[in-house]
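Entry 14. Ran structure prediction on the chain below.
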Amino acid sequence: MKSFALPQRWLLLFLLALGSFLFCLNTGSVSLQWQELWWCFTGECTDPMQWQLIWQLRLPRLLLGFVAGAGLALSGALLQHLSRNPLADPYLFGVIAGAGLGATVASLYFPALLIALPLAAFVGALLAIALVLVLALLARWQQLDHFILAGVAVSFLFSAATALLLYQHDPFAANRVMFWLMGSLSRASYQPLWFILPCLLLCLLLAVLFRRQLDAMLWSDQTALSLGVPVQPLRLLFLLLTAALTASIVAYCGGIGFVGLMVPHLVRMLLGSQALSLFVGSCLCGGIFLIWVDAGARTLMPSQELPLGVITSACGSLFFLLLLSRRRG
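Output, structure tokens:
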């Protein structure tokens, strides 16, 4: 009985992903008939407004939301797996604070350049990661918990610099940056997919190839070393991969919290904690979760879009209260 449970769960997960994709594609202020939606995909659509609605607005937003959710969940699963810490999260490495500082600089000094905001956010995120690594290596810290402590320190430093810049400049720029920092897919297009998707596929491919070594690191560093696993180089490799993946997502989607922290816990409950199931399942569940969050952000309030970070933070806090109550019981 148990042997059939896991394949059935995978099948249900793939069907849920397909159903969520189709349902969220037709969710918004304007709803199409399913026949009209089918015409848009088969090239028989005669209404240019319907074609533009599906192919230029909703489809790129849906794809970007799925890829961003998958990347954040995969990054969180990798960090929790490597550190054996259930609270590890990609944003603890100062990525969101570095991206926020870069976005603030771009909004204040280069407002006319459309590419300036994501580019500056990506550079700021990578700068924060580089500073975390330099601080940790100079202090001869080896464990991932030490990197997290360095990330928290860098995050406070970059947040202070962002607050200082916003305090000294136009308040309208502060409103734009704050909405972006809380996460949004309102500027979605096909272009970010060419930037985020290769990072996601590379990270997932290497995680699958090194799944046995990563599973060995779940026990302890000493056990993994005795089995011939290069613990520190492997940990540093995946730390850089998850940092680059998170930075690319933050550069185009802003700060979307709790996805990398919450989704891996759900996947472990459904599919187990082995590396292959955890990483592939996190990608699927993270993508499904974020496209539903985006659908709610577009429809919960009339004529107004909510930041994604508001919804994910509310879901994350409720989830962890439930998790704590279950552990106590």
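The CA atoms of residues 233 and 239 lie 10 Å apart. Will compare against last week's run tomorrow.
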